[in-house]
Amino acid sequence: MWNALASLTDNHRAQAERYRALGWWRDHTFLDDLRAHAAGRPDHPAVIAYEGGRLAHNISYARLAVLVERFAGALAELGVGPGDVVAIYLPNWWLLGPMYLACARVGAIAAPAQMEYRSREVGYILQASGAKVCVSADVFDGVDFAGRVVDTAPSTLKHRVVVGGDASRTGALDFTSFFMDTAWERDRPAPATAVGGDNPALLVFTSGTTGQPKGVLHSLNTIWAAGNSLSVPYGLTADDVISIPQQLTHVAGAMHGVYAPVSLGATCVMHDTKADMDLLLEMISTHRVSWVHAAPTRLGDLLAAQRAAPRDVSSVRLVSSSSAPIPQHMADEVRKVFGVELLACWGMTETGGCTTTRPDDPPGWGAHSDGRAMPWMEIRIGADGEAGNGIGPLLVRGATLCLDYFGQSEVFAASLDADGWFDTGDMARPDGAGGIRITGRRADLITRPNGEKVPTSEIEALLAQHPAISEAVLVGFPDPLIPEGDAVCAVVVGAGEAPGLEQVHAYLEGGDVTRDHWPDKVVHVRQLPRNALGKIQRNELRAAIEAGQL
Fold it and tell me: N or C: which end of the chain has fewer CB within 10 A?
């Protein structure tokens, strides 16, 4: 078993000991939390799961504790032990939480794969992680996920387990018969394993927009600290009911929608048709959901669904969003529909949730800031930490930062300086109130010949509010007069007849946007190139622009 502290430098080991002394890390784990809740409030719902648009499971804490032990016994029977990797390729089904925790129970590492990943990405994850077991759906939403695993499985994958459908079709173990119908916890319980907060527990692969995906490795402690980075400022308690209509195999969904509720003794409400906002509204009304977290695009769909057919959303006391800048009109609409302020968060796979605005911030602040960090995370803009009012590289360090890049320790080490500051690759500026505003990825950085840096994320969000633009991306290309600097091209997908350059300039002037942030060129495309997770492939656009193809 790998103890994370054993791989750290003396400086970092002292830092980790400090985290413990301050209560930012702990010796006990989510498994201890689960046992306590199973004993203290056994009938309280832990997981409420909808599948195919209907309520499928309502699992109490007492039942969840049994399932974790049963799944752990099944994993042990398959030879899974400390340090082994279990790949999980599933939609938002009820068994995600028990499976994550069962991996921790036997000292193994859960490696979730996004459902959007196709054979290339799934094959890479199985190969790079050396997963011993893969638990996948059979066929879901018309896609043969079990077949993808068969087609890409390396020799290191010893067992394939299929959920639903016909496992024999691909020669896999049937999940129901092997994991559910056998009382392993009674007949052959998993061996006692010394599981502490430093155990590596979650391996999440990045989307790989600029090369092969990196396997981001988190411990039970970094997961716990990341969950607290939102749970604490939001004042979440065991009485809260949490729903995140995103993939719970993504780091944000896993940390805040699966692990954090177990830590709190709260309830996770989930659905596998995650784009169905009418269903989410019914779930909010029926189960009295108190916190909803969604990306701006999904949140926009939720607001539209509520406007079309209002439901009882009076239980909601917190709404938050991340992954893209929040437009002002969305903050205003959330206040109107839900009666609360829209909170903005920033984080990444390497940190989980890291910064957030607060419920007591000024009205609409989430449209201007990505928030402040809790004491266990430090943030810095610029190499010297004195970026003033300008845009600079964002660096972070603290208790939520991941342990390593699995199998790529040298890449992770290259992202850290001697004092433990991690280079996020993001650009940010101060928000004027002790927090940050993300302006874009450094790889997407556009710098004018005069040195002015264009806040790509903010301008893209503003352009996307134009009634004739559904999506917009800013791409830098060599300035025709001074090629050492960048000119700016706006690549837009129209919602109808997309505006030309003059119309875009007039729109931005009406928004009082700095002229250096205006595009020099506007091109129209029918759709934007994306990778398997839907992230825009800017390199393809940049190459096409420089080649004169756009």
Answer: N
**Paired tokens of 146:** 């079990």
What pLDDT, in 10s, does the model give residues 202-253?
999 986 544 567 899 999 999 999 999 999 999 999 999 999 998 999 999 9
Residue 32 to residue 68: CA distance in whole angstroms? 12
262 phi and psi, to 5 degrees? Answer: -65, -40
CA distance 198 to 6: 10
Among residues 139, 118, 122, 126, the alpha carbon closest in space to that of 86 is found at: 126
Superfamily of domain 220-442: ANL, N-terminal domain (3.40.50.12780)
- Average pLDDT across each block of 10 residues of the chain; the chain has 550 residues. List them in order: 47 78 95 98 98 96 98 98 97 97 97 88 93 97 94 95 95 97 95 91 77 86 97 98 94 95 98 92 98 91 96 98 87 96 95 95 94 96 60 94 92 90 92 91 78 81 89 89 84 87 92 86 91 76 88
Give the Cα separation of 124 and 206 in Å (integer): 12
CATH number for 445-546: choose from 1.10.10.10, 1.10.3720.10, 3.40.630.10, 3.30.300.30: 3.30.300.30
541 vs 134, 156, 282, 393, 458, CA distance in Å? Answer: 36, 37, 40, 23, 19
Structure tokens at 429: 């500026």
Of 517, 453, 441, the residue nearest 485 (C-alpha): 453
- Fold match, 220-442 / 445-546: no
CATH 3.40.50.980 is the classification of domain 30-195: yes
Helices in 270-383 by DSSP H: which ranges? 277-287, 296-308, 328-338
Query: CA–CA separation, 379 vs 396, rounded Å?
Result: 5
Alpha-carbon distance values, 140 to 49, 116, 137, 146, 487 (Å): 16, 12, 7, 9, 45
Instruction: Take residue 338 and report the two structure tokens written for it.
Output: 């839900």
Residues 47 and 57: their CA atoms lie apart, in Å, by 8
For the chain, give every domain's residue range.
Answer: 30-195, 220-442, 445-546
Longest alpha-carbon distance in the chain: 76
The runs of H, that is alpha helices, within 179-309 are: 184-187, 220-234, 251-254, 260-264, 277-287, 296-308
The fraction of the chain above a pLDDT of 70, given in percent, is 94
